[in-house]
């Protein structure tokens, strides 16, 4: 077991949200106090694959959980997608996703199409109101030549009673019809970490990524040159960790344990 000294090497803590701070709408015990303790040591920012909210909406969601955050410190995949497409200028899009993704795309100057055949891009995120017609419309857009961008490829995300279908389940429906995503912007993509680090003005050597999923949070951090900490309050269990070749720098049972220095070495140090 390590002590709090290990936190002294970091100036910024990048936190996932689902599985780290909350499970669905339910806060994880001790997470808010742990976040307060981490903020006494450095800057805390939030990097999430959840595309359902914009930066503004994510700040409001965190506030409802008792977590105060500034829009400058939140980087949802909705914002990452809009920023990535903005490198091409203003594009036309067809959407499978919720209001937060639509908001960020429009804020970046992109144009939502009236008909699927007009789209340059089909952008897919979590959509809890999805129906057959929406999948059919996206197929029409793709058959007409649109390119496919996925906010993330997570098959599930943690809910209070177990895993819930993620955006990857919707991307998979389009892939199953022969249209794989051309771009996936969420973790573990280097796009996610590049946008986050640029937005925050952070050097990767002084940042710690804290997440609950090996194949997104931990793998993406490793590839981007960040140390990582896996908390076991989300989708990854000890058994999953034992079977995986992906190694975090640190392992903690909870965010509260991590903030108190109760961590194990994961042998994934840089």
Topology, please?
Layout: E1 12-15, E2 22-23, E3 26-27, H1 31-39, E4 43-48, H2 55-64, E5 74-76, H3 77-86, E6 92-96, H4 99-107, E7 111-112, E8 121-124, H5 132-143, E9 147-150, E10 156-159, E11 162-165, H6 167-175, E12 183-184, H7 190-200, E13 207-211, H8 214-224, E14 227-231, H9 238-243, E15 250-252, H10 255-259, E16 264-265
Parallel strand pairs: 1-4, 1-13, 4-5, 6-7, 6-8, 8-9, 9-12, 13-14, 14-15
Antiparallel strand pairs: 2-3, 10-11, 15-16
Helix pairs in contact: 3-4, 3-7, 7-8
Keywords:
270 residues, alpha/beta, Rossmann fold, 2 domains, seven-stranded mixed beta sheet, five-stranded parallel beta sheet, 16 strands
Question: Which percent band covers the strand fraction?
Answer: 15-25%
Mean pLDDT: 94
Count of structural domains: 2
Task: Give the helix level as a range of percent.
Answer: 25-40%
CATH architecture of the largest domain: 3-Layer(aba) Sandwich
CATH homologous superfamily label of the largest domain: HAD superfamily/HAD-like
What class do helices, strands and sheet pairing give? Answer: alpha/beta
| Count of DSSP H/I helices | 10
The major pleated sheet works out as: 7 strands, mixed
**CA distance, first residue to last residue:** 19 Å
Strand order of the largest sheet: 5-4-1-13-14-15-16
What's the overall geometry?
globular
Series of H and E elements: EEEHEHEHEHEEHEEEHEHEHEHEHE
Q: CATH fold name of the largest domain, please?
A: Rossmann fold
Radius of gyration: 18 Å
CATH class category label of the largest domain: Alpha Beta
Low-confidence stretches: none
Give the number of DSSP strands: 16
């Amino acid at each position: 077991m390590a002590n709090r000294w290990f936190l002294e090497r970091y100036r910024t803590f990048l936190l996932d949200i689902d599985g780290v701070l909350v499970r669905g709408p339910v806060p994880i015990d001790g997470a808010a106090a742990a976040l307060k303790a981490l903020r006494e040591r450095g800057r805390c920012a939030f990097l999430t694959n959840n595309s359902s909210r914009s930066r503004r909406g994510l700040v409001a969601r965190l506030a409802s959980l008792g977590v105060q955050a500034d829009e400058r410190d939140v980087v949802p995949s909705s914002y990452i997608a809009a920023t990535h497409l903005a490198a091409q200028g203003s594009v036309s899009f067809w959407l499978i996703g919720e209001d937060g993704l639509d908001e960020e795309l429009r804020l970046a100057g992109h144009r939502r199409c009236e008909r699927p055949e007009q789209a340059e891009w089909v952008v897919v995120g979590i959509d809890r109101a999805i129906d057959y017609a929406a999948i059919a419309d996206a197929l029409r857009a793709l058959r007409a030549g649109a390119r496919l961008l996925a906010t993330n490829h997570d098959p599930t995300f943690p809910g209070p009673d177990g895993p819930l279908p993620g955006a990857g389940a919707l991307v998979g429906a389009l892939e199953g019809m022969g249209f794989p995503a051309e771009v996936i912007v969420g973790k573990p993509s280097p796009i996610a970490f590049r946008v986050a680090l640029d937005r925050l003005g952070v050097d990767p050597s002084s940042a710690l990524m804290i997440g609950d999923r090996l194949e997104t949070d931990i793998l993406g951090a490793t590839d981007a040159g960040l140390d990582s900490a896996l908390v076991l309050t989300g989708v990854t269990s000890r058994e999953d960790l034992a079977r995986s070749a992906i190694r975090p720098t640190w392992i903690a049972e909870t965010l509260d344990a991590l903030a108190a220095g109760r961590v194990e070495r994961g042998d994934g140090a840089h």
